[in-house]
Fold this protein.
Amino acid sequence: MRLLAPLARLTLPFAAATLTALLACEPAPATRSGEGAASGATGGAKATATEGGGDRRVSGQLTVEVLDVGQGDAILITTPKGKRALIDGSTGNSGESPIPHLQARGVTSLDLVIATHPHADHIGGLDEVVKTLTIKLFTDSGLPHTTKSYETLMSLVESRGVTYRAAKRGQSFSFDGGKIEVLHPGATPLTGTRSDLNSNSVVTRVTWGGACMLFTGDAEEPTEEALVAGGVGACDALKVAHHGSAHSSTPAFLAAVRPQLAMVSVGEGNDYGHPDADTLSRLQKAGAKVMRTDTQGTLTLTTDGVSLTLTPERGGSPVTVRARNPSAAPESAPTSSATTASAGGSGLVNINTATAEQLAALPGLGEKTAAAIVAHRAAHGKFKSVSELDKVEGIGPATLTKLEGLVEAR
Ligand SMILES: [Zn+2]
């Protein structure tokens, strides 16, 4: 069941907006070459200022918390300016819900919620999250599920007017100078796997300055193969896939990623035998310092873009590693100059006020189409909705899809 048709989604209120394009979609950055080179555009080095100079271009510390939510996943990412993303919401069961953790941190809104896949230990607690917090953008793998909890969640997303977007490889969200990239699923979901829902988990790579963190949901071997084939490169910290299951963290994948820090989200005494002993051993052999929520509680990763420190709530001391790519330039989205220039604070390009130049910078629009938009505006007045762009010559459904989440009509 797909509750929101593409065009309906386009016209949803983009209250989300401040996400300064938290949701600027970029062309797929295919690889992260070697250890270092930042993927995607590095041009327009709009330094977001540095504390203490050096080559660090992000300001302050990004915090990633792999919450101790029992046999589920819930990961909270917070920028120094207070933008927040939540990856998964564990179950809604007592002791496993993410809500008390969010309340304890005073979280009342989330800029981005990523449901990696619709299994209960990842989305079971998200209905309460959507009900009680302000969510600016909700994204998932796009694969429907027949369970009541999935249907309830998606109904809530729709009824609460939360902007929805199915995650696809190549999407990229700018995040206070950091970046969240979707690496998986690709345009065509994997099929015929041991678990298609797991295999199509939304996989994201978060970069903050030179620090790289990979979040894998319950990805399995076919997912990892696709990631390796897609050129996934070294990444400093890994949220270990599928609670440390034997079906993930393959040698080939670990050889490509070479994580220095590995975080396993897993319930104490769970029925699945997670984490698998061989998987833990593969992670260690790959050079990762492994921490796990069942024995060490919430795992807190902080990074200034130069080094990363992983601190367990209990049962161990903090570990600090140096990011492999400490001199990475800030990754500004190609569309960011356009979005910030005309956005009036929302982060989206207002098609009623943007200049032809700003419009031409958007994906799918060239100078000619941008000029046609401006001419249409002059002849017919303001666009009442983004979908009215289809009245402009040269703009069809495919272009509208590309513009989704980037523009608004105000
Ligand atoms: Zn799971």
The two ends are 31 Å apart (CA to CA). Residues 1-56, 329-346 have pLDDT under 50 and may be disordered. Residues 73, 119, 121-122, 218, 243 surround zinc ion (CB under 6 Å).
